[in-house]
Amino acid sequence: MRLKPLLTTRRKGIVATLTLALGPGIWWATHELRSDTQVANIPQRICHNRISSEKAAPLLPTKGSKYTEDADTFGGWSSLGTCEVKADDSAIYVAYQDALGHKRNYHPKGIPVSLGKAHGSLTTEGAINLYVSCINTPRTVTKWLLIGANATVVDREVEAGKKLNRSTRGLRALTEFTAQAVRDLTQDWFKCPGADQLPDGPVTIHWDKPAVP
After folding, report:
1. Where do the TM regions start and end (predicted)?
2. CB contact set of 176 (below 8 Å; sequence gap of 6+)
3. How many CB atoms neighbour CB 15 within 10 A?
4. Which sign does the torsion angle of CA 26, 2, 100, 47 carry?
5. Which of 86, 102, 128, 160 is 20 to 30 A removed from 154 (C-alpha atoms)?
6. For 11-55, how does the pLDDT look when each residue is reduced to its tens digit (9 = 90+)?
7. Are 206 and 111 in contact (CB under 8 A)?
């Protein structure tokens, strides 16, 4: 299947690698003039109402910002969905893809991560990717969904040349948001069998396991 180009070129680095895993971090737009008294009204559900915003809030500024959302391909019948939510110059990017059978040949690069039986990696670019079993549903054609997320707050740490570790700014919040996105998408939208067994809480980063180069 030919991947449909995104609406803006600033995300082309991510989409180019999405067939294997979410790749480079978000490219954010230039800073806009803002008023520190302006409040970003983040809705209770984001990305076409598919994901709760509760865990998104810590990754976005609340003052001096205006909330916007670009999710035209998210939550439809396509095997690829992308969503960017943004408050001023900070953003969260989340995407899903029907894995198209490539899981058997996919070796996640980065630090291993998991959420119950879902597993994947924290990439060197700061994205969290998880493979989730999702078989025999009306909205999938293969056995697996690849769901991933990244955020500018983590991306900026990478851009500054800092190595990802337990103290990386925004990483804890990203593990919580990614887990929420995975649960909401697999339980409520795709209705993957067994998705109700995904645990509460954040994605676990297995710092003690060797990273895959």
Report:
1. 12-30
2. 55, 58, 201, 202, 203
3. 18
4. positive
5. 102
6. 433 333 343 445 444 333 323 334 445 556 788 899 999 999 999
7. yes
Antiparallel, parallel or unpaired: β 144-151 and 67-70? unpaired
pLDDT tens per residue across span 162-208: 989 999 999 999 999 999 999 999 999 888 999 999 999 999 999 99
Give SS3 for 203.
Answer: coil
CA dihedral 92, 168, 54, 181 (to 10 degrees): 60
pTM, entire model? 0.80
Angle, helices 152-159/171-183, rounded to nearest 10 degrees: 140
Please list, in sequence order, all residues whose beta carbon lies within 8 angstroms of the beta carbon of residue 209, skipping any fewer than 6 positions away: 111, 112
Task: List all residues 6 or more positions away from 76 whose beta carbon is below 8 Å from its beta carbon.
Answer: none
Question: By the 8 A CB rule, do 210 and 193 touch?
Answer: no
Q: For residue 83, what is the enclosing H or E element?
A: strand 80-87
Rg (CA), the chain: 16
